[in-house]
Each structure stands twice: as structure tokens, then as C-alpha cells.
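Model it.
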Amino acid sequence: MNLGGATILPYSRTYIKDMVYRVDLSVPLEPPSTSAMQGSLVLCEASLYNSNPLNWSTAVIEDDEQGYVSFVSGIVSPHFRLLLTQAELDAIAVPQDPTFVPYSETETSTIIIPDDEFERILVEVGVPFILLEELEFSRNKICDDIIAPAMQEYFKFFPIVRRESVYNTIAQAGQVFKVPLPQGAYGAVRAFVNQGTTGESGAAAGNPMHFFASEIAWWGGGSNNNWSPIRYGSGRSPGYSNLQGFGTLALDRAARQGILNYATRCEVHIERDPATGMKNLVGYANRTGTLEIYWACASNDWSDVEYARQPELRRLATARTLRALGMLRGQVKSDIPGALNYEMFLTRAKELEDEVMNFWKDPALRAVALRGSL
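Modeled.
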């Protein structure tokens, strides 16, 4: 039911179902009418498109308790039901604005969703059998207040991952680095430092942990094609040059790499700069190299949702819509004409939401990377 109001003039011909109207007979009649319907609130229970004008000044109240009204004595109108008389309405402490319509379409939504997809979400609340205009919420409010949080929940589990190598931010061992979050990103799936190579100079070349990377990078590239070739400006590096000593070489490399793995540290987190309001990825590492980030991004565009996950998000959005409408209707007095069974909405909402959320939280959906695997 639309709890907004509209003014009924004595000779209006069109009335829309589930709209609340206030009878106003003061304009065409002078002095103001003393009809029992003057200033009352009536509910249009069934749409009426009448070519013959209805004279509200002749309307009478047939039954105070049931709210039956008639335009011909003894014949109850099938279209209208009295809600409040003028005296009862005036007794309400809060002034009523009969022109107020909740959630009027004055704004555009931040959510981009096709009309057919939007209709599929609302099919369990009766759309298209029930017109969208007959719901308690407008399209924009459903998108912003219901579908948007559902999409936020989706991207929390399945973010859009964008890879970025920040070449202009070389992480220096022991120093803090800070990188602004790009547009659409809300965090980072992971971030790490690609250790420098022999082509770098300065801090990269002076990093103690850089020695091992240099040794691997030059492996087999020097004179005589040995395991431990001659470096520029130096003698042979420690190690094994005998090609038959591969087992010993592998154990030596494994021991060194194990020490590096144990000693390596890299920490990142998201901080908001209070001066600019911008969010940054802040962290440090104890090795030097290029910072590589996998950003976690969200979107307001339905088309950015993974195709295989769209049915699940659709069910979650349906559940949130059913709950919103069910909770709203649950606040309405049960004796108001035309009240619906909202308990079914709440039961179905929980069923759909539990199904989707339990599936998304299932560890089986999380990808597992095994170190050293193919």
C-alpha cells in the first residue's frame, strides 16, 4: 500500500488501487460542504476508471467499524474504504501532508542493472503481476538500499582482482612504502616485493639478501658455463663448479633459500590519510625490489559480476528485498484492509539468504596454491 496521499475532487474520474486519498469538497462548493466524507481519508481498494463523475458530496458512511461507504444509500462501494474521518484525522498529533509520497523518484541510482535483471530479482514479490509502482519502495531505493549492499557482500567474497607492478615505488629494505588505492579498489588481495636483479644499483645491489638472487641470475652465464661463473670485477663466487656435484649444489641452494624464507618479512595494511581522506596501501619489507600488488576491487555495475555467480547474487538480492518488504508490512496494523501475509516473505528471505551465504562461506570455494606445484 502506498501510504502517500492524494486529494479527491468531487468530479475526479480516475482512482489508482491501494492509494490513500483525502476527500476535499471545499473548492467547487461554497460554502464548504458539510458532508460526512469531507476531509476524511479513504483507501481505493480497486482501481476505478469511471467515465461518469462521482459526486463525493453525496457519499455517506454505511458502517463506521468496517469503513463501508456508498454513493447510493444501501449500496456499498466496492472501490473505496473509509480509513479515518476528518475528526479522527485532526486528532492525530502529527500534522499529515496528503501530498507526501514516500520514496518519490527524484534521484538516480548508483547501481547499474538492466531492467530484465531487476525484474528477475523482484519476481518473488509479485513483479510483474504487481506493478513496481505498487511496491513500498521505488526502483532507485531498491537499487541503492537493497541491491547495493547485496553486491557489496558479493565483492567481499569475490573481488575483482587487478594486478599492478609499482615500478616507481621501489621498496627499500626496512623502509615504509605507501601507495594510493586506485579507483574502485577497497583493499589488496596480496602484495609482495619482487627482489631486485643484478641490473639494479644502489640499495638493491647493497642489500644482503640480494646476493642470492644475483648468484641465481648469473648461474651458467659466465665463462666456461660453470655453476659458479666469474662475476664482473671479481673472482669466482663461493660454490661448486663441478658439474658432477649437482646434488651438493641443490642442497646448498635449498639451505640458503630456507634461511631466506625464514628471514623474509613483508607486511601491508590499508590506512586512511586524515588530511586528504584518501586510502593508501602502507607496508614495509626487509628486502629490496619492485612492489607488486593485486588490488581487490568492487563495482556498482551488475555486468561486472562473474557470470557463474549472478544467480547466487540474484537470490541474495531477492532475499534482502523480501525481508525489507516483510519487515515494513509487519509494522502495519493487522486490521487495515488489504493487509498481506508478510510472514511468508520473512521465511522465504531467510531460506534464500542462508543458502547463498553458507555456499559463499564454504572453504571449498577458496582457491589453494601449493608451493612448488605445477
